[in-house]
Specification:
Elements lengths: L24 H14 L2 E4 L7 E4 L2 H9 L4 E2 L9 H12 L14 H10 L4 H25 L2 E3 H6 L1 H11 L6 H12 L13 H24 L5 H6 L2 E2 L2 E2 L2 H32 L1 H9 L4 H12 L4 E6 L3 E3 L2 E3 L4 E5 H4 L34 H15 L3 E6 L4 E2 L8 E3 L1 E6 L1
Parallel strand pairs: 2-10
Antiparallel strand pairs: 1-2, 3-7, 4-14, 5-6, 7-10, 8-9, 11-14, 12-13
Length: about 425
């Protein structure tokens, strides 16, 4: 088939614009493998999404991320239905639309990022580690006390990183359930179990307004009485001597509270499932705890919680000899880049000792994930606490993946286990 622009549309690429495909690993990766081998730069036209170029090779993803002047985040940083694209743009123009680090380009992106950067540097991570280790022990103890079965996602993987990130922000534990619900609704707009209402642009706007109401009050409180936490740093952050706008402030909270929690949840739960599905690797890791750092990287590669980001060309260019016109968008398929046969030896093998492991799960370049070190620390603490105490583990039902086109992973992981 052809599109109005004359590009040949890829049938295999249509899975990328189909939320249900991300809930079916076999279907998703079969199509991605075909694209890498046959059409690594593929034109995709699958309404209600606007057309885009699917970039499925690791090298091309890295090159586009590196060239953040030629390929920019605005005005289309994420894959959303056309109606949602239009609604977000209208909201931003009206000063009420979410505008996180994900949506920004330099120099504003660089200036905004600096405000929170110190809270994710090594010294801050060392200071936070006591709290992270304490929470890891709390949740493994709960597994022991509530066993021998649980839904690992809803009882452990969701709550543990949420408590970490909201502790970093300095929010009271009484507010954590509210933040969890809002986070699930924000990222669950394509999933029937988690979305608010019908999951349309009006429902997403309602979720964002709930976030805005909560964090506007937090900003006012932290400006009046700073408390030495990340929320205070954001509330009192300035650019060129001027305080952040209300929307930039709220957007900063939202990206930290939601993305910083949900992605780690997906890596933790998907990592445990990978160990269950590969018992020889689980035994290998239990026998040699020194492999934990490489095991964590492999879990992050294997799960790829952030499925994509979009970039828009600012000038006519080409990728692998394929012309891309100014104004056209490219879809960076991280899930594909992390299984690229030219970069990873036997990429469909889960290998806890894999080195090197040049995965793109945290992005690359100026948009490299601000919380990457925190995510690694959280995973290291939890698995470092769980694995030495784990005597047996198996599935107690069928795992379920969420439908998404952006951030996602397991929404249910029923397990049966024995812990000491």
């Amino acid at each position: 088939m052809t599109t109005l622009t004359g590009h040949s549309a890829s049938e295999h690429g249509k899975v990328l614009a189909d939320p249900s495909a991300y809930a079916d690993d076999e279907r998703l990766h079969a199509n991605l493998a075909w694209l890498r081998a046959n059409e690594p730069v593929a034109w995709v036209d699958n309404p209600p999404y606007r057309p885009f170029w699917a970039i499925t090779k690791h090298t091309d993803i890295m090159a586009i991320e590196r060239d953040n002047t030629l390929f920019v985040s605005g005005p289309r940083p994420l894959l959303m239905p056309a109606g949602s694209d239009d609604a977000l743009r209208a909201q931003q123009e009206a000063g009420i639309g979410l505008r996180t680090l994900v949506h920004m380009d330099d120099p504003h992106h660089r200036d905004i990022r600096k405000i929170g950067a110190d809270w994710f540097r090594p010294k801050a991570m060392r200071d936070l580690k006591i709290r992270v280790d304490e929470l890891a022990k709390r949740y493994v103890d709960l597994m022991r006390d509530n066993g021998p079965e649980c839904d690992f996602v809803t009882e452990v993987a969701v709550n543990y990183p949420l408590y970490v990130i909201l502790s970093l922000l300095g929010l009271p534990e009484a507010d954590f359930p509210r933040m969890l619900k809002l986070t699930q609704e924000l990222f669950g707009g394509d999933d029937a179990e988690h979305k608010r209402g019908a999951g349309g642009s009006e429902d997403i706007l309602a979720v964002l307004m709930d976030f805005f109401t909560y964090f506007a009050a937090l900003t006012a409180s932290r400006r009046e009485n700073p408390t030495g936490d990340l929320a205070s740093a954001i509330a009192n952050g300035t650019i060129d001597g001027q305080p952040l706008s209300d929307m930039d402030t709220v957007s900063y909270y939202v990206i930290v509270a939601s993305a910083g929690h949900d992605t780690t949840k997906d890596a933790i739960s998907g990592g445990l499932r990978a160990l269950i599905d590969h018992p020889a690797e689980l035994a290998r890791l239990k026998a040699d705890p020194g492999l934990l750092p490489t095991a964590i990287e492999e879990m992050i590669r294997w799960t790829t919680p952030v499925k994509e980001f979009m970039r828009t060309a600012t000038a006519d260019t080409e990728v692998r000899g394929v012309p891309i016109a100014a104004g056209e968008s490219v879809y960076l398929a991280y899930a594909s880049g992390n299984r690229d046969e030219e970069v990873f030896a036997d990429p469909f093998r889960f290998d806890i000792g894999r080195e090197p492991n040049k995965h793109v799960s945290f992005g690359y370049g100026v948009h490299y994930c601000l919380g990457a070190a925190l995510a690694r620390m959280e995973m290291t603490s939890l698995f470092g606490e769980l694995l030495p105490r784990l005597e047996s583990i198996e599935l107690a039902g069928a795992p379920e993946l969420s439908a998404t086109t952006f951030v996602g992973g397991l929404k249910h992981l029923p397990i049966r286990y024995s812990l000491r």
